[in-house]
Specification:
Shape: globular
Signal peptide: 1-25
Keywords: Signal
CATH superfamily of the largest domain: Bordetella uptake gene, domain 1
Strand content: 15-25%
Largest sheet: 10 strands, mixed
CATH class of the largest domain: Alpha Beta
Structural class: alpha/beta
Order of helices and strands: HEHEHEHEHEHEHEHEEHHEH
Number of helices: 11
InterPro entries: BUG, Bug_dom1
Family: Belongs to the UPF0065 (bug) family.
CATH architecture of the largest domain: 3-Layer(aba) Sandwich
CATH topology of the largest domain: D-Maltodextrin-Binding Protein, domain 2
Amino acid sequence: MNKLMRMLALACAAWLALPAGAARAAYPDKPIRLIVSFPPGSGTDSNARYVAKKMEERLGVAVTVENRPGGNSFIAAQAVAAADPDGYTLLLASNSPVATNAAMFKHLPYDPVKDFAPVARLGFGAMALAVKADAPYKTVADLVNAARQRPGELNFGSGSASYQIATELFLSMGGIKANHVPYRGAAPALTDLAGGQVDFVFADYGAVIPFVQSGRMRLLAVTGDTRLKSAPDTPTLQESGFPGYYMVNWTAAFAPARTPAAIIDTLSDTLVSIYRTPDAAEFLARTNWEVFPVGPKELGAFQREEIRKWDEAAQRAGIPKQ
């Protein structure tokens, strides 16, 4: 009996001496969910599906994309904030739920900083100002002049807080008014633009370009500070009478707050390594997004600065918090 007790004691001591987490099953050992706040077809959704495939190859578990659009991205953000902090539920987010919403709403049903653990930023890209292909507006000046001649008659669609702020800033700087029609993501807003239900839309360039290529839309301008390589004839808004206009969207991954640091590190290392490959650069280049992967610490600082920047833009555009 004494010999048996000594053996059990030694086994327990060895188990307790293992590094933190080694006594548990290795992470990951079951499927991972990527929650997206926009419908299929959006730029964020495309990024999520690319990420899911590459994560599966590297981590050896299934990675699924779950679209939860609507509610100003509240639905998706709340789902992740309330999930178990075990690394198996992530928010693959644009800036809307984790930065821009703070500029739009007095009371969010989640805290964009306290309720999430930054994992990795992946990339960023310009938006585009688009109109229907047969619209009478050939330039930004044409659209601005029409809005001035018909104040409050034109309608614009927006599929997120960032698109709304980008549009409202454009209206404010141009001294014009238009009616806001909200949508549950860029895809339905662009579908209605192609159908003539709204007059113009700001959306990610990658989401707009298929409509342009099919002859259903026309690009008037892009929101970055340089022209896009794939659209060299499309001016920036800065070139179109809006000096200083610069608004871009970005994509990043967040976990629920209190997710263990070791799991965050595993996820961050995986995502950053994926987006540092030539394949990722080529994937993003198709939609004129730029690869810009950084880890948790850098993403956290970047997120806080983005909250400040979008709040400043919303104030400049005269958008009262809801």
